[in-house]
Amino acid sequence: MHRVGLLATVLLALLACGPQASPTATQVAPGPTRSQPTATPPANPELVLATTTSTQDSGLLDVLVPMFERQTGYRVKPIAVGSGQAMTMGERGEADVLLVHAPDSEVKFMAAGHGVDRKLVMHNDFVVVGPEADPAKVKGLTSVREALGSIAGTKSTFISRGDNSGTDQLEKKLWREAGITAKGQPWYLETGQGMGLTLNVASEKGAYTITDRGTYLATRQNLRLAILVEGDKSLLNVYHVIVLNPDKSARINHAGAQAFSAFMVSAATQKAIGEFGVAKFGAPLFFPDAGKPEY
Q1: Exposed (0-12), middle (13-18) or buried (19+): which is 57, by Cβ within 10 Å?
Q2: Would the pTM count as exceeding 0.90?
Q3: What residues in the chain have per-residue pLDDT under 70?
Q4: Three-state DSSP state, 52
């Protein structure tokens, strides 16, 4: 009887308490879980990244920027322009960090004191694309200068970006090395736009152009263009990350720029770069280079 009486007492006590309300958001603040560590918020979380249209048009930024934001708490504003315009923004203090691919101009940029740190990040290559009909008969040529000579000789339409981007700078250099003055010729047209739009114009006009492989592969389903010339060592396309000189402007987020630079050459980011495009195209669109000697 003693046992029964004790059990009854306990049951009565529980019933008297009634149902317990579950804690609300105001009662218990959710905290970070072990599986999702949170970074300490940076003092200045806004970061302006001036970069090339190829990193945007290829889709690479759509992978890397969210990775960086999750890891660090920074909020990135990417501005995709040509490398030349990106460096002009850097000179004016209108960006915090650059991701560009115009090595000759980058060296001058650093020598002028506009940047304080420059790191090799990755590479891909440029290719000459054009219509399948190939009126200049350049398909299979191993020399890009010979191909440009055939395009000029047959007066086949060539579309240039004409925007002082890394791609545009390389293209102009190749014409000079081939001994050809293309600018001003009726068959030579400039868009003044990024790589994606320039490829669209070349496709519509059945023309030739020079493009980075990554942007071409990412957009080729919408193009009537084929890769005709590739493999010339002059077509190597190298990218660097540059931390801008904070002495140039009080607006420059130096801590954020350093964090982004470190992120770009980290092992996890380099792995992501090397894997980007493999699932869709069967080959990477960019090749990681952090820590390697300069090309």
Answers
A1: buried
A2: no
A3: 1-39
A4: strand
